[in-house]
Amino acid sequence: MTTGARSKTVVTVISKIAEKPAGKDACLVVIYGLELGRKYNLENANVILGRSSKSDVQIDQESVSRNHAKIINTGKSIILRDLGSTNGTYVNDQLIDEYVLRDGDFIKIGRTIFKFLSGGNIENAYHEEIYRLTTVDGLTQVFNRRYFLEQLDREVSRAKRYRRELSLILFDIDRFKTINDSYGHLAGDYVLKQLATVIKGKIRREDILARYGGEEFAIVLPEIDGANSMSFADKVRKLVEKAPFKFEETKISVTVSIGVATCDDAADAAALIKKADDKLYEAKAAGRNCVKA
After folding, report:
1. pTM (2 decimals)?
2. Which residues have C-beta within 8 Å of that of residue 262, sequence separation ≥ 6?
3. Quick check: is 215 catalytic?
């Protein structure tokens, strides 16, 4: 575990104030962390976020300062201001000192992520966000386990019905616990999110990338056979190995182990997952940073 004072580069982000006043209906919605889906209204002039029980928005985590940040509602704009916190306040992955919030901004304090809503119909926007949370992982912004399982079951049925190819890739980050222990959980969260971003830009529109659980991810590959899925899996492995993972000036080495399975006439979704998972463990046993099928 790293020790000592955190080196923080303060970045003041200047953003244009929205044409319409933010008004009293603006709110924060928890999209990652405890109390998932909870809404905090921002009608008061000042709202304090922090670990203290006296905070208006309490975030009970060690990585959060007692008085971490303040939200100021001027009536025309909503301003987020860091209060000299130890681990910083982030908006859309940028470390900020003071920032004028815009509708849809993501705010990260400690390991909790909020989404800022200020649109004309807050209730509709809130309910749409809650619906989105049923399919999307709040941290990585790729599909969640629930959506993955539903879609895989549908794709397996489709593949068998029309006799089409279907492959599944399961992969997880090698020695992820060591990353958390060495650099902290905030760095671990960064690695998960960055890995998802790196891969999301390299898959087809019809492919399904999901966070399966913890540091494990899945990719459903419709109409891809075994040989091509192996080739694609190795491209993913190389992509991750070469990608830059840099958290607050610290480079982090990241690799993944990958298991690949293809659908056959006897397979259902559960059997396909087990096949891919068995191959993933084979990749781990073979020394990690490799692909097994």
Report:
1. 0.88
2. 165, 166, 167, 168, 225, 226, 229, 293
3. yes
